[in-house]
Amino acid sequence: MTEKRTALLVVMDGAGDRPIPELGGKTAFQAADTPNFDRLAQTGMNGLMDVIAPGQTPGSDTAHLALFGYDPIDSYPGRGPLEALGAGLDSRPGDVAFRSNFATVDSNLTVIDRRAGRDISPEEGRELQEALDGLQIEDVTVRFVHTVEHRGALVLSGPSLSAEISDVDPHETGKPVLEARPLVPGAEKTARIVNKLVRLSHERLKDLEVNRRRVERGLPPANIILLRGPGKHREVPTLQQRYGIRAAVLAGGALYIGTARYVGMDHIHVEGQTGTIDTNFGNIASKAIETIRQGYNYVFVHIKATDNASHDHNPEQKVLAIERTDAMVGRILDEVADDIVVAVTADHTTPVSVGDHTCDPVPIVLWSDFIRPDSVTAFSEIDAAQGALGHIRGMDVTPLLLGYAGWVPKFGS
Ligand code: ZN
Ligand code: ZN
């Protein structure tokens, strides 16, 4: 029996790139000063990875399912249920979950601001949430939580619900809120409930004290909810059931927390961990070390700032986010290198030149103090192509990590 270790998966969201003219034709990984990643690359095994499949541009949710070892095509429940789980709204069989935006409409339900100014404070969010959570429409119960800014998650519970309905968000200002339509026979009831709910949300929100105060301050009132990304509750075998391991997630965004909870990870709260460049990297390192020492067998750490910088076409910020993550990983290695097997990678490429996800493979390094090294000497998309891991898929990452960490039993005798 091999010694068992903790598998540590560090994902920098959207960190893969193409040569960037502003960086002298280097990718962000090549341009960044990353002594710790480079040390892992020199003494570990490197490769390139198609996170979903060759040529398939990943969304972050499906990409993470693959990285956790789940077939994203078979096991994806839609974004709504994952976002809801990440917001702490657990769904049950039969439930349908949505992502929700607070928006601003006029009295004809024409959209003036799809995000109600984006600046809903936690206090305002609580007041708005109270007006919606627990509503009853026909035989359907509404549960709602505000998450950050204009965002929230919503779960419908009741008989005969379907996720196969069209969007109510016109995705443009100056257009009226759309009527949800059934996309398959049997979805008529859900479309009707959603249409009633969206109108009821306007009735309940428009005269709230919180919106009166916002209007007084010249801010757009959060006077309606727009729902999207519907998905029906699903369950998959957890990592605990598949491998007998305890797994934990340290992430700042609801989608990542939710995707990890969906596969059975415990969410470990980190003070100051957010989805921005100002996330508290020091606290994440300390909490990761503590979580590894507490006996978790699989620890997933998510850093979002790299993807934000890429969507914002900001190469300097992307380099900075990579360098801060490198320092964070260095701190973790200083404390627990002997107890872990680690993979450092990205969930997809988001070239700063494009500002959106693309299908280019991402670099990955797999390291522990006993893993056979290859000839790669730096961590980047270009260097990793020469590595011993060759070309793998996202679904290979968790089996590789857990195999080297001693959690996958021998096959055969
Ligand atoms: Zn992503
Ligand atoms: Zn993205």
Tags for this entry?
413 residues; alpha/beta; Alkaline Phosphatase, subunit A; 2 domains; six-stranded antiparallel sheet; 15 helices; 14 strands; globular; binds zinc ion
Condensed summary:
The chain is built from 15 helices and 14 strands. It has 413 residues and is α/β, with parallel strands linked by helices. The mean pLDDT is 96.
- Distinct small molecules: zinc ion
The termini sit apart by: 13 Å
Name the average pLDDT.
96
* Outline: globular
- Strand neighbour order, sheet with most strands: 10-9-11-1-12-13-2-14
Name the CATH superfamily assignment of the largest domain.
Alkaline Phosphatase, subunit A
The main β sheet shows up as: 8 strands, mixed
H-E string: EHHEHHHEEHEEEHHEHEHEHEHHEEHEH
Cα radius of gyration in angstroms: 22 Å
Can you tell me about this structure?
By secondary structure, the protein is an alpha/beta fold. The protein has 2 domains: 6-76 and 235-404, Alkaline Phosphatase, subunit A (3-Layer(aba) Sandwich); 83-232, no CATH class. 33% of the residues lie in helices and 19% in strands. The strands form 2 sheets. It has an 8-stranded mixed β-sheet with strand order 10-9-11-1-12-13-2-14, with helices on both faces. Strands 3, 4, 5, 6, 7 and 8 form a 6-stranded antiparallel β-sheet that branches. β5 (136-137) and β6 form a beta hairpin. α5 (79-86) packs across α10 and α11 packs parallel to α13. The longest helix is centred in the C-terminal third of the chain and has 22 residues, at 315-336. The two termini are 13 Å apart. The mean pLDDT is 96. Bound molecules: zinc ion (2 copies). One zinc ion (ZN) is lined by residues 14, 60, 307, 311, 350, 357.
